[in-house]
Amino acid sequence: MPEGVGARFIPVCDSTNEEAARLASIKSAQPMWIVAGEQSKGRGRSGRNWVSGSGNLYTSLLFAPDLKLSDLAGLPFIISLAIRETFVTLGGLDGDIQCKWPNDILINGKKAAGVLIETSGVVGNTVGHIIVGIGMNLLHSPDTAQFPATNFFAHIGKKVDPREALTVLAANVKKRLDKWRVSDFKPIQQEWTDHAWGIGKPVQVRSIDETFSATLLHLAEDGGLKVKLVNGVERTIYAADIFPGFK
Q1: Quick check: 20 and 31 in contact, CB under 8 A?
Q2: In a 10 Å sphere around its CB, with 0-12 CB exposed, 13-18 middle and 19+ buried, how is residue 38 labelled?
Q3: For the chain, what is the domain count?
Q4: How many CB atoms lie under 10 A from the CB of residue 163?
Q5: pTM over 0.70
Q6: Would you state the pLDDT for residue 48?
Q7: Beta strands in the chain (DSSP E)
Q8: Cα–Cα distance between 97 and 88 in angstroms, integer?
Q9: Which domain holds residue 67?
Q10: pLDDT tens column, 164-192
């Protein structure tokens, strides 16, 4: 682990985010990676089940930054870029690995990793702890996922040990967090857009309230996603799932 960062390995837990929340309740001060061999109740965004058999990386970073809730817009994109960089460092083909808004990493257009960021101990606008949950499909992937999924073994043809992946990931995350300036989103915005899936292509946008077709434009300055509707009107979306569109 990077200097000043701890790690806790658990053979099986309900979810690493839940374990991190329990640690946060006892006011853990040192940044800590919680890693599980398997999860019995792994979850993704919007409470979706995250299939969590052995061989993949299931981990959460718990840390207590001096930040406000309003400072966190860039964090999901920093983490996504760190995961993308980790796949590349482990031998993945750079051009095949992309970021998908808001918090997924794709390999050849299929989901290979996801991020779930939660907070603990929020008082007003001040954050107590941040929990960054990460799942990386190293060895296997679900067949019934809403968005088609894949795994790193299918991409490079060799197994990667989850602890090896964590070592690379932890270094990449720390490097990016150390460089992070919450008042300057532009470098994050540009790098994420450079590696984004679907830019300039037709997609289907699905939210709780509506489903519509659009073309992806770029990441907005506040973390939303700029799209162009079929009538030419531009719009920024903040809560939705993106799927390939049809010409």
Answers
A1: no
A2: middle
A3: 2
A4: 11
A5: yes
A6: 56
A7: 6-13, 32-39, 57-63, 97-100, 104-107, 110-120, 129-136, 202-206, 211-219, 225-229, 234-237, 241-244
A8: 8
A9: 6-194
A10: 999 999 999 999 999 999 989 999 999 99
